[in-house]
Amino acid sequence: MTPSPIAAFMASLFSYNGRTRLLDAGAGVGSLTSAFLDKASHEGIDVDVETWEIDNILGGYLKNTLDEYVRQGQGKIKAHIHAADFIEGAAFSIQFDCGNRYTHAILNPPYKKICASSKHRKLLRMVGIETVNLYTAFVALTMLLMEKGGEVVAIIPRSFCNGSYYRPFRNLILRISSIRQLHLFESRNLAFQDDDVLQENIIIHLVKGEPQGAVIVSTSHDARFSDYQQTTFDAAVIVKPNDIEQFIHIPTVIGQTSTPKLCTHTLRDIGLEVCTGPVVDFRLKAYWRDKPTDGTVPLLYPHHFSDGALCWPKSHKKPNALQLSSDVSKWLMPRGHYVLVKRFSTKEERRRLVAYHLSYEALDAAYIGFENHWNVFHIGKHGIDEDIAKGLATFLNSTILDEHFRVFSGHTQVNATDLRNMRYPSLEQLRKLGKRAKNQPNDQATLDRLLEELETA
Ligand SMILES: C[S@@+](CC[C@H](N)C(=O)[O-])C[C@H]1O[C@@H](n2cnc3c(N)ncnc32)[C@H](O)[C@@H]1O
Question: Is residue 163 within 8 Å of 417, Cβ to Cβ?
Fold first, then answer.
């Protein structure tokens, strides 16, 4: 349930003028509607509220809360509770255009994956919404139910900001509404950045049918808003005008509008490619081997690296090798220099981007299997130049890039698409960086110093 200071902050973002029809979909016990009604009554506004809550127990509390507001409102507040599935109800209203349009919506929707074959997915498709999670479904349906100029304030995970799965959702939202404000909960300390669920959530304020203008980006370190700050950014900083993916970049550091100076080239410009580790281990279970022997190839997982160094083979529940066979060989890459980036960083890791240079010499094997928890930088499924690989790993592990990546990517995963859409130094710069990084210690301060020297060279 949304804590009351967050609910009050969300309610404070709306403009209150005239006739107000409020929607709260997935209303729980009514925390958000309560905050809205408190603010509206302070402004002397009449409100018709419609809430949707599927859970009967929560619905009971919701009814008590709303009854009290209606009683105290003396005719200025009307409330209706739909004890039903919002997706079904909203899809029906949109399809038959029989719903009343809302002027305001305040949401903390449920978060859950929607299965490809589910009833929800089919209902959403019927009204032109293609999405993979309940929270984006709730926001998209809400947006379709709003009248022109209607305002939506929602607290939702940041994951919709990038990633291909959410592209249709971003396309819809950015086509029919504009982003007025984004609020982030920033950690004071990078080390604790992922500890708090709050930091993976943002508050977004959208206005239907309004041309996109400048966007307010605000931050606070916690839900008390005691150190609230805001800056206004040009819309092009948030969504790059020619970006077909329509990624939503949220500057995490107030005042940070630019990408690092070294990020100038696309991956294609520098002739590199990146893919998800091709070996999906459970599909090849019949070929798992604990110990490398003749006729096997190394299978590398992220747990095979610690403190930047390869530690293979390793005693673990997962295999160290795969028996060579025609089923296996199509997923392998030949021996070479590769850069491996973990798709999921652990809580202990301060950085979101964790990259390793796997050198040609590291493994005495003609082919290598890269497990699916990796992103692998390669050229045509082969290795890359040694200095470039070393330089690329150094660049990816730098603090400056990590900070940039956090702006760029809201979630804790690192997808190959994110890496494909990032900008990189030139090949010459990467080569220079790789040469300098050789024989240097692998600590953060050294990596950052090497990057700084390259930036100022
Ligand atoms: C994250 S909670 C937020 C509750 C409330 N909005 C708040 O901010 O405190 C999401 C709510 O959505 C409700 N919910 C989940 N699926 C729903 C559906 N399909 N239709 C209506 N409500 C749903 C859940 O029961 C839950 O109360």
Answer: yes
Is ligand 1 within 6 A of the CB of residue 85? yes
d(CA 48, CA 61) in angstroms, rounded, equals 19
Using CA atoms, how far apart are residues 205 and 213, in angstroms rounded to an integer?
13
Which residue's entry shows tokens 């959410």?
166
Instruction: Look at the block and give the residue holding tokens 């309940």.
Output: 134
Phi then psi for 341, rounded to 5 degrees? Answer: -120, 130
User: Which residue's CA is minimally distant from atom 4 of ligand 1?
Assistant: 28
Residue with tokens 């410009």: 269
Q: Is 52 in the pocket of ligand 1 (CB under 6 A)?
A: yes
pLDDT tens for 241-293 read 888 899 998 876 554 445 677 888 989 999 999 999 999 999 999 999 999 99
Q: How far is CA 450 from the centre of its chain?
A: 29
How far apart are alpha carbons 334 and 441 in whole angstroms? 28
- Ligand 1 within 6 A of CB of 87: yes
* C-alpha of residue 86 to centroid of ligand 1, in Å: 9
Most informative mutation of 22, 34, 62, 86 for ligand 1 (most atoms within 8 A of CB): 86
Bridge partners, residue 215, by sequence: 233
Structure token pair of residue 115: 């299965």
User: DSSP secondary-structure letter at 352?
Assistant: S
CA 202 – CA 90 distance, rounded (Å):
24
Residues 428-441 pLDDT 10s: 999 999 999 998 98
Q: Domains in the chain, please, with CATH?
A: 4-238 (3.40.50.150), 273-456 (3.90.220)
Tokens for 327? 């089923």
Residue 193 tokens read as: 């950045």
Alpha-carbon separation of residue 314 from 282, 283, 383, 392 (angstroms): 19, 21, 24, 26
Average pLDDT, the chain: 90
State how far the Cα of 354 lies from the Cα of 43, in Å rounded to an integer. Answer: 50
Give the global pTM.
0.64
Question: Which atom of ligand 1 is found nearest the CA of 28?
Answer: 27
Question: Which two three-digit tokens encode residue 171?
Answer: 């396309």
Are the C-beta atoms of 121 and 167 separated by less than 8 Å? no
pLDDT at 411: 60
